[in-house]
Write a structure and sequence with these properties.
binds NADP nicotinamide-adenine-dinucleotide phosphate, about 260 residues, alpha/beta, disulfide bond
Length: about 260
């Protein structure tokens, strides 16, 4: 079942998603029995922390490792078995053991030009991400998931979209057994850090998203559910690109189960 082929949410889409929700639970159970391990890069960020929460809630991996530049503190007992690897991203080769032995990898790493400057943005969003993917591949990872962006294009004249496209393409060359690229539009979330441009953008997009729900934005929780649902689905596709519409569809399955 390919996320990319899902249409917009019509009645038939909802039926399909309901069926998928039941199937997803069965698939979760299947994955649990396989005792697979995963790692998350960027677990301190908005997507990463929500993804970690969802993975823990669904108990689909027998071992969960978060790889980041600082140690995180969790109050909740549910996080007690999470393994933390603190690495220096400027010397990632020295931390190759952190990337050893994970079946599935999720990369939610990223910064912005406003925060890190142009060179800093390229360093994190392209170089750190690619190096991490290389180490993960060398360490035995078979399914690599990249949170990229809507409009990613290595030929784009916009730096952000070009860098996202370049890293997508470079990771494809690593030849993972399975490589999933998520291309979400603007993430609708209550971000801890204050980002003025994002706040303005989100405010403008709220009314638009009622009319065109999948065009310009996506709730963060939907992205995370799509990542988890996709990870439990079997796929014979080596490379999957999930555009914003497909993320909405795939992320909706669990939402329907809860109703
Ligand atoms: N925001 C959007 O609307 C949007 C839309 C589409 C795609 N995306 C993409 O989706 C991905 C995740 O976005 P997000 O908003 O969830 O990210 P976020 O909240 O900004 O979190 C980014 C993560 O990257 C880490 N990071 C940043 N700079 C780093 C550095 N110099 N060294 C090591 N780690 C660093 C952060 O660690 P610390 O906590 O230690 O800083 C954090 O864990 C990004 O690639 C982003 O470009 C975002």
């Amino acid at each position: 079942m390919q996320g990319v082929s899902f249409p917009l949410r019509s009645d038939s889409q909802i039926t399909l998603s309901s069926r998928m929700a039941e199937d997803t639970e069965k698939l979760c159970e299947g994955l649990r029995k396989e005792n697979k391990s995963c790692f998350i890069l960027g677990a301190s960020g908005e997507t990463g922390k929500e993804l970690l929460k969802e993975i823990i809630k669904n108990r689909i991996f027998s071992k969960v490792t978060i790889i980041g530049r600082r140690k995180l503190t969790f109050e909740d007992e549910a996080y007690k078995d999470v393994i933390q690897e603190v690495v220096d991203f400027e010397k990632l080769d020295e931390y190759s053991s952190a990337f050893q032995g994970h079946d599935v990898g999720f990369c939610c790493l990223g910064t912005t030009k406003a925060k890190s400057g142009e060179a800093g943005f390229i360093r994190v969003d392209r170089d750190y991400v690619l190096k991490s993917a290389q180490l993960a591949k060398a360490g035995g990872c078979t399914h690599f998931n990249l949170e990229s962006s809507k409009g990613a294009n290595k030929c784009s004249s916009f730096l952000y979209l070009r860098v996202k496209g370049e890293v997508e393409a470079a990771i494809e060359q690593l030849d993972f057994d399975r490589y999933t690229i998520f291309r979400p539009a603007v993430l609708m979330c209550d971000r801890e850090e204050y980002r003025l441009a994002e706040r303005i953008f989100q405010k403008v997009l709220i009314p638009i998203s009622y009319t065109f729900p999948t065009a310009f934005s996506v709730p963060l929780t939907t992205v995370v559910r799509a990542m988890v649902n996709n990870a439990v689905l079997n796929s014979d596709k080596k490379v999957e690109i999930l555009e914003n519409k497909a993320i909405h569809a795939l992320g909706a399955a669990q939402e329907i189960t809860k109703k």
